[in-house]
Amino acid sequence: MTTTVTAPEATGTQEPAAPRHRRRRPKLPYALLIPAVATLLIGLGYPVTWQIINSFKEYGLAQQFGQPAEFIGLQNYLDLFTDSVFWTIALRSVAFMAGTALLTMGIGIALALLMKAIPAWSRIVLQVAMLLAWAMPIVAQMTVANWLIDDRNGVVNYVLSLIPGVDYIGHNWLIEPLSFFGVAMTIITWASVPFVAFSVYAGLTQVSEEVLEAASLDGASRSQTLRMVIVPIIRPVLVILLLLQLIWDLRVFAQIQLLQDFGAAGERYDLLGTYIYGLGIGQSQFGMAAAAAMVVMALTLAISWGYVRNMIKEDQES
């Protein structure tokens, strides 16, 4: 006895496909961010709001005797943007920021590569030396720097004067703008290099030895391995370090202020930090100082925006 199996008649309709479920992102990470975000909003919200409001007000002699500040709208910003002194200081600050950040990154990366190549005992000695330099307070840094470049008893002038035909005894390094900012750049770079070196070295330790060995077997030289293998792997570390250095060097204040106190040039060699301090504390123009601070904040956000946009793009792609 045979059984005939008949196929079901074809119909014009198809069974609906099973719905595709989108992967649900866990909510716990976002919940864990709430305390940190709340702390930032509380700690930064009031000062930033206060600065924004004050940037639209005018402060003068009457306000020192209790009179309320007058609301003047955008006048502080108009006065600031039409002031050639402000633009000179802003351009000087941007140039100083770029030069100092690039110099810091270059020396820091070189020291990180050196730590990767030298034996353990010498690497530890170098790390301890950099850690001590990094941990030194700014006032101590500036005191040592003042001793080194003192025009009468400074070590730098004495050593340079040992060169035949060179006489630097009595030379003041803080008189000319080029040497003034050269000294400032040297001090800031010296204090910032350890952070970059340690961070880049930590990134280098995460590069797999198998990857380096494969590059060597393929005939890549050391420079090619560094440029085409190592740098792309540690690129996120380098980008965030460069971003941090640009922001820190744009907002530099203490070193410039103390160098101005040491030298005879005074406020003629201002950067944005000391310029804002002079407007607010020195001249009691708190409205103008607040407007200038808002400009610095806008510059900082502009510098950071490229990195933030890339992070958002990578997060969406993942």
Automatic annotation (TrEMBL):
<dbReference type="Pfam" id="PF00528">
    <property type="entry name" value="BPD_transp_1"/>
</dbReference>
<keyword id="KW-0812">Transmembrane</keyword>
<keyword id="KW-0813">Transport</keyword>
<feature type="transmembrane region" description="Helical">
    <location>
        <begin position="225"/>
        <end position="248"/>
    </location>
</feature>
<keyword id="KW-1003">Cell membrane</keyword>
<feature type="transmembrane region" description="Helical">
    <location>
        <begin position="180"/>
        <end position="204"/>
    </location>
</feature>
<feature type="region of interest" description="Disordered">
    <location>
        <begin position="1"/>
        <end position="24"/>
    </location>
</feature>
<dbReference type="InterPro" id="IPR000515">
    <property type="entry name" value="MetI-like"/>
</dbReference>
<feature type="domain" description="ABC transmembrane type-1">
    <location>
        <begin position="90"/>
        <end position="307"/>
    </location>
</feature>
<keyword id="KW-1133">Transmembrane helix</keyword>
<dbReference type="InterPro" id="IPR035906">
    <property type="entry name" value="MetI-like_sf"/>
</dbReference>
<comment type="similarity">
    <text>Belongs to the binding-protein-dependent transport system permease family.</text>
</comment>
<dbReference type="InterPro" id="IPR050809">
    <property type="entry name" value="UgpAE/MalFG_permease"/>
</dbReference>
<feature type="transmembrane region" description="Helical">
    <location>
        <begin position="124"/>
        <end position="149"/>
    </location>
</feature>
<protein>
    <submittedName>
        <fullName>Sugar ABC transporter permease</fullName>
    </submittedName>
</protein>
<feature type="transmembrane region" description="Helical">
    <location>
        <begin position="30"/>
        <end position="53"/>
    </location>
</feature>
<feature type="transmembrane region" description="Helical">
    <location>
        <begin position="286"/>
        <end position="308"/>
    </location>
</feature>
<feature type="compositionally biased region" description="Low complexity">
    <location>
        <begin position="1"/>
        <end position="17"/>
    </location>
</feature>
<keyword id="KW-0472">Membrane</keyword>
<feature type="transmembrane region" description="Helical">
    <location>
        <begin position="85"/>
        <end position="112"/>
    </location>
</feature>
